[in-house]
Amino acid sequence: MDSSSGEENGENGLYGSDEIEKESSRLESLKNLVDGVTNKGKFSETYPGLIFDEEMSEYERELREDIEQLIDKQARLEYGEEFREAERKMMQKRSEVEEYVRERLEGVEDEKLEEMNIERTEEGKLKLYHATPVDNMDSILGEGLKKRSETGNYTWGLEGEDGGLKEEKVYLAGKEKVHNIAEKIQAEVDGRSVYIFEVEVEESNLYPDEDSQAYHWVGSMESLSTVGYKGEINWEDMRVVDKKDYTLGTEERQELYEEIEEMDDSYIEDKEEIIEELWDQYREKGKMNERDIHGDYDHLLDNYDD
Length: 306
Hints:
Helices cover 46% and strands 14% of the residues. By secondary structure, the chain is an alpha+beta fold. The strands form three sheets. Strands 3-5-8 form a three-stranded antiparallel β-sheet. The longest helix has 24 residues, at 81-104. The chain is globular.
């Protein structure tokens, strides 16, 4: 070996001390992305609050280690075909872990459900929530909630969601999170009303939301407060519990702003009051138009007693 190589590359060889520290930190962060990779204990230690019939197997540990290696490989690759292939293999391995965990799962402790603010019915089903724009209410009343591969709708009605894994699921949320989702949906549908459903579902059909990177639906709820439900949800297992009422859309707001700008300055003292009146007028007009096009489903809220 050339004796000058140490001088050319610094006292620490190919990497200086700062580079080594950064690399170590990066590798540690990657390992943390895959929870419990080196965990040699029982499932309950890796998935607190979940009840399993036996300890974690060597098979699952090997899968997790494979995932860790693929994550590390992706971090070293430029985005391209090789990167996408590593990502595809990683997702396949994650799916294997997910199914393996599901097969061994016996249930979720009641204390864990209470911690996540999820109720269990007397029949053993879990209560979760779904938000949808008024556009979908007629079909839901007749057919219930259907997976995207049948409806063609984006998850939550929002554009930009990834296909593939999400095609066969209906997505549900926790009691608090669903209101945030309803706001996003309303912005996407230009102010139209959004209805919120409480649904009762079988725990065995729950899967993690892919965006959570969790191996089980409980982990998905803890990180994103959303989960996937594989299959359809019948109307009999749903009820309307809340509504985000109609608000002005982009075009209506623009019309209102233009009308305000054209107001005579003589009304300046009463301008704020007049603006409130105009807002209400535009809103009532929009609500009537929405009812004519999509129907009115507020009577379903009468059956809800919080």
